[in-house]
Specification:
two-stranded antiparallel ribbon, 16-stranded mixed sheet, 16 helices, 546 residues
Length: 546
């Protein structure tokens, strides 16, 4: 028996019988190439992008799909141009906090992680700017919640906690442990900009952030990107940062406050902002410029309804070359995140191109700059190549397990939609069960490319590998997932190894293929649940689907 057959023998026969479109060796080979040092971590607007785009295009061509990108002279290109603002801090920033009569110098990447500004500023200078603690930094009128209580924070720095006010207790106005968008760091920055703050200091804690300080440091050290905006200062402040918890504890203590007590107070709607007896100064130059990155797009045109589209997506980018780890490795290879998602996308394109032509069109969208804030998919959502009103759904693949086949599967987040019902039904045909996101507090729904279309109403999900492993059960699956987040996520250690077991990815890919094929050959239009925040947006385009 083959290795795949041996491993799947512990699963129902249906799972093995359906595993016909994907080869674990081919999936693994794509990852080996894309995550090799030669691709330099696949950062946008680098030689790594050129190689990544070239490889994806060559594989789409070999698969037999057609170009689905921008129109030029009446013909589709393989790519969609994505203009981005790129910003880098020049040299080491000068940073300090004055507190309790002393000045404490801060080192980038140690006590603080400063993002290069996305306001277009060429220089950032802050001199003794006052600091205010505003709890979780949330303004949610529908929940009768306002952490600012009328305080004018214009020109000030705000300190905010990560995640939602009810993360600690698991109950309250924000859905318990499941993170809402109010808990995401992107929301904290956006709200600060809306209020005219000079900047934001997000207090990092591993549990509510769902990742360690190494991830924060690495994610902010390699430059920042944003889509080109008419008014960037409406969305960003000049000074967007994270700080270590220990620094926050010291700042509070210097002001005669107990950090844990203030955090507890912030979990109530009665919380009021607290001015800290501290100021911050910063000075650094910025290299800001506009570059053009690229989404890569392949397409199989529908035989009967070519104007109706099913989208498969995955992001091709990672963090590029950055600060070395303890072993001196500077290349952030991004093997799991997300070379394996692209490998599935490439083989998905091959499967559809080689099979019977679907009734609806199927698009294979490899997006850029996910690691910089879902920017490639955000650009596609703002400038869609195919109308969103007649997009049936988006099926995203990001960071599948390398631990082997599982008896279950999941999705990022806890959204309710017909697309999930269909996925569960297809999973049952494999003999596999659905397990809800085990960590909804991590806010995974808002951290993958499906979110940018979901917020525009398109039914969208991002599949996650199951944890109930054939070899080792849930204990082994949980341990593997936790080890990846702790030791490899957004670190140079996220590298391909021949010891990987890609047979689980075969099952996940097959499940997504079956769902996409079902949608592409039906008249079904999945929708969000009646109480979903995305239902009303989708319903506004209902006339396009008649």
């Amino acid at each position: 028996m083959t290795k795949l057959a041996l491993l799947l023998a512990a699963l129902p026969a249906a799972a093995f019988a359906q595993a016909t479109h994907f080869d674990p060796a081919r999936l693994s080979h794509h990852v080996e190439i894309l995550s090799s040092d030669a691709f330099e971590g696949r950062a946008p607007a680098t030689a790594g992008e050129t190689k990544s785009v070239g490889y994806i295009v060559s594989q789409f061509q070999a698969a037999g799909v057609q170009p689905g990108g921008d129109l030029k002279d009446g013909k589709r290109l393989w790519t969609q141009a994505v203009p981005l603002l790129r910003s880098n801090i020049v040299g080491a920033p000068t940073l300090s906090i004055a507190s309790n009569g002393t000045v404490l110098p801060l080192t980038q990447g140690e006590q603080i992680a400063v993002r290069a500004p996305l306001t277009g500023d060429k220089h950032v200078t802050l001199k003794d700017v006052p600091i205010v603690f505003v709890g979780y930094g949330v303004t949610a009128p529908e929940r009768k919640w306002d952490d600012f209580k009328g305080m004018d924070v214009r020109g000030k720095l705000i300190v905010v906690l990560i995640n939602d006010p009810d993360f600690e207790t698991g109950q309250g106005d924000f859905g318990g442990k499941a993170m809402t968008y109010y808990g995401r760091w992107t929301y904290k920055y956006e709200e600060a900009a809306r209020r005219g703050a000079a900047g934001v200091l997000i207090v990092h804690e591993t549990a509510p952030a769902s990742y360690g300080w190494a991830t924060v440091k690495n994610s902010n050290a390699n430059g920042t990107f944003d889509i080109v905006r008419a008014d960037p200062k409406a969305t960003h402040t000049p000074f967007e940062t994270w700080i270590q918890r220990d620094l926050a504890v010291k700042l509070f203590a210097d002001s005669g406050l107990d950090f844990e007590a203030e955090k507890k107070a912030a979990q109530s709607r009665d919380f009021k902002p607290v001015a800290l007896k501290a100021t911050l100064s910063a000075d650094y130059a910025v290299d800001a410029s506009t570059i053009v990155s690229h989404n890569v797009v392949g397409r199989v045109a529908g035989a009967k309804y070519p104007n109706e589209t099913v989208i498969y997506s995955a992001h091709w980018d990672h963090l590029g070359v950055g600060a070395p780890d303890a072993k001196g490795d500077k290349i952030y290879n991004g093997a799991v995140d997300n070379a394996d998602g692209i490998s599935v996308l490439l083989e998905m394109a091959r499967a559809f191109a080689k099979g019977p032509k679907p009734q609806r069109s199927v698009v294979f969208l490899a997006v850029t700059a996910e690691e910089r804030g879902l920017l490639g998919s955000e650009y596609y959502g703002a400038s869609p190549l195919y109308p969103l009103g007649t997009t049936v759904g988006m099926l995203n693949t990001d960071a599948l397990s390398t631990a082997g086949p599982a008896r279950d599967f999941s999705i990022s987040g806890s959204a309710k939609l017909g697309l999930l019902d269909d996925l569960i039904e297809e999973g049952k045909k494999q003999g596999r069960s659905f397990t809800p996101d085990a960590r909804p507090e991590a806010g995974s729904f808002y951290r993958s490319d499906h979110f940018t279309l979901a917020k525009r109403g398109v039914p969208a999900i991002s599949i996650e590998s199951g944890e109930d492993l054939v070899n080792g059960g849930r204990a082994a699956g949980k341990a593997d997932a936790e080890a990846y987040v702790r030791d490899k996520y957004h670190q140079p250690a996220d590298e391909w190894t021949p010891a990987w077991n890609a047979t689980g990815q075969v099952l996940d890919a097959e499940l997504l293929f079956n769902l996409g094929e079902r949608l592409a050959n039906s008249r079904e239009w999945p929708n969000w649940s009646a109480d979903s925040e995305f239902r009303a947006i989708r319903d506004k385009t209902a006339a396009a689907r008649k």
